[in-house]
Amino acid sequence: MKEKIDQYFGITRSGSTYKRELTGGLTAFLAMSYVIFVNPIILGQAGMPQDAVFMSTILSSAIAMLIMGLWARFPLGLAPCMSMNAFFAYSVVLQMGKTWQEALASVLVASILFLILAISGVRSKIITAIPTTVKQAGTVGLGIFIAFVSFKNSGIIVPDEGMFIKFGGFDNPNVIIAFFGLLVAAFFLVRKNQYAVFLGMIGAALCGLFIRFGATMDWFNLSETVVAGLPQLPAGSPVVIPVEPMQAMLDETFLVAFKNLDKMLSLDSFIVILTFLFLDFFGTATTLSAAATQVSDIKSEKFEDNKRIYSADALGTFFGSLFGTSSLSTYIESVSGIIAGARTGLMSVVVAILFLLSAFFFPLLSLVTSAVTTPAMVVIGIFMMQNIRNIRWDGPFEEIIPAFLTIVMMPLTGSIALGLVLGFLSYEICMIFAKRTNEIPKAMHVISIISIAYLFTL
User: Transmembrane residues, as ranges (predicted)?
Assistant: First the structure.
């Protein structure tokens, strides 16, 4: 059996060992496991039942990684993408007014389109057509948007009549929890610890538990409402058979996407689908490109031109929409497993098994509040912000203007889709002004027409 597994995954052939694959799998799991608890919090703000999202996150991630490991045979982890769940909750549901059921249907359609694009090879042509300046700016804008939302949800930023927003103040214990978690995450980031996100959340949760304990001991004068919103330990055992979240998923989110497909015929729904599609395959392309830079002995083309990798991503999103979660994507955090020595799909299988085992820790959701997730969201924003160096700020204004509009309009309008649309259109218009129309790819004209149509839906 051991020899068959070795031959199937090519462990010896790739210069790896069982120990390195298992170590890499554990490393990748710890680096990306925060999504298990953060995703339900974000989608819960869109009205989705957190218990159900917890289970759908685990199941869809495990299936996607089994596909990645057993079929693509590549060492990468997949889970609900932190930028796409933000788009799902804050843009599609809270801003555009779609129901979360309709949003799931949009994810389902986008996953099918993504799979077709991945298999046919059209994906690469679309990626090539979109200007680099807008692609990179989109990632930066997403990073700022995610951090901004997390600051708002934790109380660090609050509304202000005169200046629109202001600092929330340390009289709110959630602000203290969020900042303490950020300090912990920053400590481990500067020391190049690959678990910085995970440890930052643990630090925030421990800080929250201390404040809750202090309130019960009358050390702090906090209202019952404030105390109720603080992290708390599970009432019973932290390890249980996940019957409750599984039942919640089957009752409330399973196959809901199929039941709302008839609502996908409107223009604004079409734009939402295209945005999910764009974020999905562009996000995966960006992650694979970043992953390739981390491993010198694996060629970039092996990452970026592998149709099975993109297909695994699309299939993961497909199953995710059926179970009840937003789009899945390849996680840059999972590259930590490759850096730890993994080189085959066995690593992905190990991560999938660990994700399934984590379902038994469902009660720990009571520890995770918006303040506890702030370190994770901000660190992700920092990582995405690094793409700003790939934008030619000393280049022509026909590249600078679209990049600037894309970056600032995402957080300022609270709409990821609008930021991208304005980036696409301003690029096309500025290229026309610069008399460089012949340099605009034909596919970009189609994207611009769709973008104009989207503006009429606002």
Answer: 21-46, 52-71, 78-97, 103-122, 134-152, 172-190, 197-215, 270-293, 314-332, 338-357, 364-388, 400-427
